[in-house]
Amino acid sequence: MTTHAVMPPESTKTPVPVIAIDGPTASGKGxxxxxxxxxxxxxxxxxxxxxxxxxxxxLDRSLSADDEAGVxxxxxxxxxxxxxxxxxxxxxxVSDAIRQEQVGNFASRIAAYPAVRQxxxxxxxxxxxxxxxxxxxxxxGTVVFPDAALKVFLVADVQARAERRCKQLIEKGISANxxxxxxxxxxxxxxxxxxxxxxxxxxxxxxxLDSSSLTIEQTVQxxxxxxxxx
Length: 230
What we know:
By secondary structure, the protein is an alpha/beta fold. It has one domain: 3-Layer(aba) Sandwich (Rossmann fold), CATH 3.40.50.300. The protein has helices at about 30-40, 45-60, 70-75, 100-110, 115-125, 140-145, 160-170, 180-195, 215-230; strands spanning about 20, 45, 80-85, 85-90, 90-95, 135, 150-155, 205-210. The strands form two sheets. Strands 2-6-1-7-8 form a five-stranded parallel sheet. A hairpin with a 2-residue loop joins strand 3 (about 80-85) and strand 4 (about 85-90). Helix 2 packs across helix 3 (about 70-75).
């Protein structure tokens, strides 16, 4: 008698686990996400890079940040590649270029547009591959991966964040002014938290972690401890 294997229904399949790390700009979520992923042997998603790449491509085309339709079209057609820790836009490495403050401010403005967010939503979800994904951004746990196995909302005092960003830029040879960074960061926080679509907010089931007085190693360990406890 011939027997046939019975496949489980789609709804019973266990989804690839996701650790979602959200938080305001310069809270250290990118660094923490990469180190947590390295410790677990998982993939990473820097969602902010996709918005910065969209911003850089729009700036290269001389588009205005007020042109929602034009920027959304750029997002849909984005020719981007992540390879070995480097980021390429239309075959040009832009790993450092997307970290410029001008690009970051443009990205913060266009991130409020529903059409841009929708254009990048599915691009982000394809990063969810076995054995797991650590995703960082501003709406990973609330919108992109609402079923994430672990959600962490990483916060830090705005002064501490501005000082971190200033140090990062100077180490990369980019001129930076702390007062300007502090002002820009407060404005960006206001835009991110007050926008009508996918505002920056901790998911109801997220662990809120204040890294103001923690080292990178301590913050990474805290996230790993959260994971062990899931």
